């Protein structure tokens, strides 16, 4: 189970880094290209969040939600995932939106995802990397929402740098989780 969670965090980290590098390398891209890049990124991370939330568990299942009992973090992941899917689909279906609307969309998505990550970090032992990702996400989202008219280049750089840092931290969290799982296996033998 830890290996699958580490793998999903790793995939999310790689996607974030690739998206971030593309946004930094081509900061002068048109709003349409930026909207499409963001849409793909948001959909991919939204799917990852939902898959992570609904994966089978060994615990008792709540008949109303379908989730294991006591799974508040799962609900947070589903909400963040659905918001990511909605934001991504909106960006892809309506790519001609202005830089200001895109900035507000990206900023709101970063804030919601960051708050979900912060909340999840309080539920996990050793979740300081996820808390750091959440805090960076909230700060970046607030920056973009407060100053959406700073232009597409500044927004692309802010989004790109945020995605690279977050992706690196997610890869580190996946690495930690992998070694945590190996430590448990060694202790069991």
TrEMBL record:
Q: Name one Pfam family in it.
A: DUF308
Give Gene Ontology CC terms: plasma membrane
Determine the domain of life of the protein's source: Bacteria
Q: Where are the transmembrane segments?
A: 7-26, 32-54, 75-94, 100-120, 127-146, 152-175
Query: Which keywords are on file for this protein?
Result: Membrane, Transmembrane, Transmembrane helix
Cite the PANTHER family for this sequence: PROTEIN HDED
User: What name does UniProt use for this protein?
Assistant: DUF308 domain-containing protein
Protein's organism: Dactylosporangium aurantiacum
């Amino acid at each position: 189970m830890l290996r699958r969670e580490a793998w999903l965090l790793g995939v999310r980290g790689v996607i974030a880094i690739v998206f971030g590098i593309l946004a930094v390398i081509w900061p002068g891209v048109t709003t349409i290209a930026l909207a499409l890049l963001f849409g793909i990124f948001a959909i991919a991370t939204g799917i990852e969040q939902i898959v992570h939330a609904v994966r089978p568990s060994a615990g008792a299942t709540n008949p109303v939600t379908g989730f294991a009992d006591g799974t508040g973090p799962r609900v947070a992941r589903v909400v963040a995932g659905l918001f990511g899917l909605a934001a991504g689909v909106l960006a892809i279906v309506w790519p001609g939106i202005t830089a200001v609307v895109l900035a507000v969309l990206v900023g709101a998505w970063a804030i919601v995802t960051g708050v979900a990550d912060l909340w999840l970090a309080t539920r996990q032992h050793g979740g300081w990397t996820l808390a750091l990702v959440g805090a960076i996400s909230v700060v970046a989202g607030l920056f973009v929402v407060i100053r959406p008219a700073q232009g597409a280049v500044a927004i692309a750089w802010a989004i790109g740098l945020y995605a690279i840092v977050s992706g690196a931290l997610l890869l580190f969290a996946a690495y930690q989780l992998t070694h945590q799982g190996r430590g448990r296996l060694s202790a069991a033998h």
